[in-house]
Q: What sequence folds into this?
C-alpha cells in the first residue's frame, strides 16, 4: 500500500477533476503491475496497473489501491469491471470514495463478483492525498492552501516598499512543491504590479514532505523525474484591469 500511496501522491496536479489514485498488483509476494491515474479522460489507476502487468498472470493476484474503484460509466469504463475481468481475487482499498456516485458501490460490486475486499489500510494518508477532490465532490467548494510570509515584526517590506525573500530555501521548495500539485494559484493585482511574479512551478532540489499538509507522511514528487513539473492555472484578482500587458 505504501507504494500505491506514493504513486497517488506523484500524480497530484495532473488528474483533475478526477482524484489522484495509485494501484499496485502483487502475486506471490512480487509486484507485477502498478499505475496511477492518468490525465482527465484517460485511464484510471486500476486499468493502468493491470495493463502494466503485461504477460504476468493477474489471475488470483492481489491489488492494493488508494481509493475505492469506481463502478459507473463516465469518460472511461468502470474500474470494478476491469478488476473482475483480470481475475484479481483480493483487493485492499485504502479508503472509500466520497463521491456520491460511488460511495461504497464499487466495493459492493467487487464483493458481489466474489472478490475479497479489505478497507482501511493507509486510509489516513489516502484521504490526505485526495483532500481537494473530497472537498469538491462533497461540498462543491475548492480546497484552499494559503501561503503567507512576514518578518518577526509583521512586515512584508521596508518602509520604502523594497522587499526580498523573507522565507528560506526549504520554505520556497515546499511552496513550489504545492504549486506542482494544485490546479490554480491566485494573487491580487497589487502583487502583479509590485513584483511581476511568474507564478510557475520550479522544483530545483526537490520538495520536502515532512511539513506538507496535503500529503503528510507520503513521499512527494522529486525534481529530476522524467516528467515535467505541473504549472497551475494563474488567476489574478483585478477589478479595475490594472494588470500590465507585459506582465509575466
A:
Amino acid at each position: 500500500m505504501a507504494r500505491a500511496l506514493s504513486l497517488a501522491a506523484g500524480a497530484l496536479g495532473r488528474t483533475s477533476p478526477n482524484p489522484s489514485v495509485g494501484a499496485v498488483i502483487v502475486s506471490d509476494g512480487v509486484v507485477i503491475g502498478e499505475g496511477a491515474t492518468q490525465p482527465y479522460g484517460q485511464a484510471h489507476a486500476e486499468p493502468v496497473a493491470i495493463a502494466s502487468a503485461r504477460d504476468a498472470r493477474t489471475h488470483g493476484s492481489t491489488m492494493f489501491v488508494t481509493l475505492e474503484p469506481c463502478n459507473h460509466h463516465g469518460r472511461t469504463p468502470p474500474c470494478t469491471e476491469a478488476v473482475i475481468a483480470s481475475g484479481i481475487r483480493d483487493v485492499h482499498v485504502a479508503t472509500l470514495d466520497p463521491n456520491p456516485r460511488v460511495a461504497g458501490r464499487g466495493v459492493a460490486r467487487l464483493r458481489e463478483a466474489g472478490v475479497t475486499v479489505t478497507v482501511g489500510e493507509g486510509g489516513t494518508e489516502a484521504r490526505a492525498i485526495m483532500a481537494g477532490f473530497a472537498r469538491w465532490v462533497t461540498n462543491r467548494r475548492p480546497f484552499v492552501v494559503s501561503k503567507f510570509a512576514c518578518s518577526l515584526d509583521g512586515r512584508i517590506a521596508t518602509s520604502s516598499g523594497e522587499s526580498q525573500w523573507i522565507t528560506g530555501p526549504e520554505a520556497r521548495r515546499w511552496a513550489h512543491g504545492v504549486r506542482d500539485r494544485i490546479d490554480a494559484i491566485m494573487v491580487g493585482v497589487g502583487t502583479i504590479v509590485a513584483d511581476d511574479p511568474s507564478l510557475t512551478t520550479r522544483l530545483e532540489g526537490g520538495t520536502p514532505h515532512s511539513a506538507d499538509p496535503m500529503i503528510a507522511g507520503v513521499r512527494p514528487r522529486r525534481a529530476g523525474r522524467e516528467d515535467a513539473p505541473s504549472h497551475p492555472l494563474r488567476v489574478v484578482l483585478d477589478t479595475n484591469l490594472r494588470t500590465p500587458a507585459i506582465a509575466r
About this structure: The longest strand covers residues 30-36. Confidence is low (pLDDT under 50) at residues 205-226. The radius of gyration is 21 Å. The domain at 1-139 is CATH 3.40.140.10 (Cytidine Deaminase; domain 2).
